[in-house]
Amino acid sequence: MKNYQNKSSFLILFGLLLSISNIHSQSVNNDVSTYNWFDKTVGKENLDIINGTPHNNPFGTVGDNSIYLIDQYESGNITYEGQTYYNVKLKYDIYRDILVLNPFESENVGINLIQNKVESFSIKDRNFIKIDKKINTVPEFTTGYYEENKIAPDFIFYIKHHKGQQKIISEGILSYTFKENTSYFLSLKNTVYQINSKNDIIKIFPEQKKQINGFYLLNRELRKADLNQFMRNLMKYINNSLSIQTK
């Protein structure tokens, strides 16, 4: 039985603080609180989401780097098999494209969630979606997790977070370093483009060449410090510029 059905039955049997009619009239925030109360009461180890394989990290690293988007578990939300779980502890292994759940008190225990059952998740105000497709014209845009930035209904910017591995052998000891190797994609009016450079962006938006060059010039420091945020801002800027032109 699905968790949603379990939760509904549980609420009826044990008479949650509010009646069913009141629950239906509550805001989204109260629904989140209700589901969190249920998850805590029945025990997170009994939820349907906990059916993956144990997570392990076999890579001893050199320096301040890891296989994760964010090194520690962070509170986030996830939609798994049609059911949304709120305020769960998540960590994203971007080297192997694995989403890890920590349902227990100890942060030394993690579960690799089954990718084809994950629909979406959010960590640190960033939204991710599981894309299950392959486009022949853009072979790099394959199945996996992508950060999704909905700029407009027909203007969606995707960031594919990934890290490349380098092996290091020193005094007979094998260790690793991981360096971010991010890819960018734009879905514009249902056509997907890969973005590798400024020239790629200008090819997509030739009428915005002057504005794009100006944005690069004015935001050089941000581009050096945080390329992902630079690209998010650039996509918003281009969409706003296009909106102004069409008025």
Short description:
The protein has about 250 residues and is of the alpha+beta class.
Topology, element by element:
Elements: H1 3-14, H2 20-25, H3 28-42, E1 53-54, E2 74-80, E3 83-93, E4 98-102, E5 111-112, E6 118-123, E7 126-131, E8 144-152, E9 155-160, E10 163-170, E11 173-180, E12 183-188, E13 191-195, H4 198-204, H5 209-218, H6 220-225, H7 227-246
Antiparallel strand pairs: 1-5, 2-3, 2-6, 3-4, 4-5, 6-7, 7-8, 8-9, 9-12, 10-11, 12-13
Helix pairs in contact: 5-7
Coarse structural class: alpha+beta
Instruction: Quote the beta fraction.
Output: 25-35%
Strand order of the largest sheet: 1-5-4-3-2-6-7-8-9-12-13
Q: What portion of residues is helical? A: 25-40%
Runs in which pLDDT lies below 50 for 5 or more consecutive residues are: 1-28
Strand runs, count: 13
* Average pLDDT, all residues: 84
Taking all Cα atoms into account, the compactness measure Rg is 22 Å
Question: Would you give an account of this structure?
Answer:
The protein is of the alpha+beta class and 247 residues long. It has a domain at 200-247. It is built from 7 helices and 13 strands. The strands form 2 sheets. The protein has an 11-stranded antiparallel beta sheet with strand order 1-5-4-3-2-6-7-8-9-12-13. A two-stranded antiparallel sheet has the order 10-11. Helix 5 packs antiparallel against helix 7 (227-246). The longest helix is centred in the C-terminal third of the chain and has 20 residues, at 227-246. The relative contact order is 0.09. Residues 1-28 have low confidence and may be disordered.
